[in-house]
Amino acid sequence: MGEGMAKFICMEVQTIDDYDEYCHYVAGLVGYGLSRLFHATGTEDLAPDHLSNSMGLFLQKTNIIRDYLEDINEIPKCRMFWPREIWSKYVDKLEDLKYEENSEKAVQCLNDMVTNALIHAHDCLQYMSALKDNSNFRFCAIPQIMAIGTCAICYNNVKVFRGVVKMRRGLTARIIDETKSISDVYSAFYEFSSLLESKIDDNDPNAALTRKRVDAIKKTCKSSGLLKRRGYDLEKSKYRMPMLIMIVLLLAAIILGVLYGK
């Protein structure tokens, strides 16, 4: 792992193959190790390497997408993990994506990156569906659901180039609390994929490919026969804060009424 990561200290991530190789060293090898540990304990069958690798790549690519601004602004030297093969279709330099005048191209590039990450989702679902031990399952499933949710949040979202974009704490807590079975995973992947699909712009240069990959994820989830409604919402409800204020005011009125009534 260290040797592989060191290779990219002085080497730019040029191609998508380079990108996959870097993510393999950083996270795919972790997937290999985890699968071997599960097998060594006798709790799981040994997963195929390509599935273990995809588990790591999906998580790592999601982090790389989400952390663009933090990485590009790193001091004393920026960190550049987005492959030139993708970003060079939209801008001359990777750092140009963060400038407001390039917002349209930046979002198109972002969508291209998310579409690339989605290719690993099917393998991840296949890997998780084979897990037998509940502790192993939850350990793997929760981060993967967070990843597909983060992809849905980041997709077509210019805020990725302006600041921190991440899932709400309340939604994160729900995922941790409610992820107990493969049915929960299929349902979460289906809903987050549907939310991402609702954000696809027909004018986006990768719209057709994005839809194809989202459709593949949804088809896998639906064919399981295990879907159930989760009701995940990526955005804070605009009614939540006014409702909270109303409750506080009502409680204050009741307390004052009791005090003055005495």
Structure report:
The protein is 65% helix and 0% strand. The chain starts with a helix and ends with a helix. α3 crosses α7, α3 packs across α8 and α6 packs parallel to α11. It has one domain (2-237): Farnesyl Diphosphate Synthase (Orthogonal Bundle). The chain has 12 helices and no strands. It is globular, with a radius of gyration of 21 Å. The model is unreliable at 237-241 (pLDDT under 50). By secondary structure, it is mainly α.
Short description:
Helix content is 65%, strand content 0%.
Specify the structural class: mainly alpha
How many domains, in number, for the residues?
1
Q: How many DSSP H or I helices?
A: 12
CATH homology-level superfamily = Farnesyl Diphosphate Synthase
Rg from C-alpha positions? 21 Å
User: Major beta sheet, specifics?
Assistant: none
Percent of residues in helices comes to: 55-70%
Q: Choose one word for the global shape.
A: globular
Give the number of DSSP strands.
0
Named at the architecture level, the CATH assignment is Orthogonal Bundle
Report, as a whole number of angstroms, the end-to-end distance. 72 Å
EC number: 2.5.1.21
Cofactor: Mg(2+)
Transmembrane segments: 239-260
Pathway: Terpene metabolism; lanosterol biosynthesis; lanosterol from farnesyl diphosphate: step 1/3
